[in-house]
Amino acid sequence: MKKIFKILVVICLPILLSSCSNDDDNETNSTTKTKVKISKIWVTTIPSTNGSLSWDVASDPDIYAEITDRDGAGLRATTVWDFVPSPNTPYQVTFIPQIETTDFTETLDVDVWDDDSDNGTSDDFIGNVQFRISDYTTGSNKYPSNAIKINNGTVVTVFFTWE
Ligand SMILES: [Ca+2]
Ligand SMILES: [Ca+2]
Question: Could you tell me the distance, in angstroms and rounded to a whole number, from the CA of residue 32 to the centre of ligand 1?
Fold first, then answer.
């Protein structure tokens, strides 16, 4: 009887080990994300001047963002008047509901503007920052909770939730 038990243990051991390695494989697979949700963006820095000119003559710029995805679905966020964003006091756009996509080839396109409707003139373009979702799905820091991107003095942070 003891002998049978020993044989059973020997036979079972490789099965246990292989089932362990299967578990590891399953864990690796389960960390592959198939959907990303974007809850908000921050604009933390803009160029201090419009070329050689001030954004507005007598006051600070009036910042708003226009966000479009690859399909051209657009969103214009509310203007914050007379406001210069900074890392401590960012211009924030919160998405309710959250933007979500399963197509990681999409790009989140953020245009930042100075609203000049109070002057009766066309708005001043401040900057554009683009986030290609596929840039955040590979490499050692894939699926980050946020990403910061800089383009010509405009700095935008995007906040991700991966599922
Ligand atoms: Ca202006
Ligand atoms: Ca303005």
Answer: 45
Domain 32-162 has CATH 2.60.40.150: yes
Backbone angles phi, psi at 15, to 5 degrees: -65, -40
Domain ranges across the chain: 32-162
Distance (angstroms) between ligand 2 centre and the Cα of 13 equals 73
Rounded to the nearest whole angstrom, what is the distance from the C-alpha of residue 54 to the centroid of ligand 1?
7
For residue 55, the ligand closest to its alpha carbon is: 1
Three-state secondary structure call for residue 17:
helix
Q: State residue 81's pLDDT score.
A: 97
Query: 7 in helix, strand or coil?
Result: helix
- Percent over 70 (pLDDT), the chain: 79
| Segment among 47-51, 77-81, 97-101, 110-114 with least mean pLDDT | 97-101
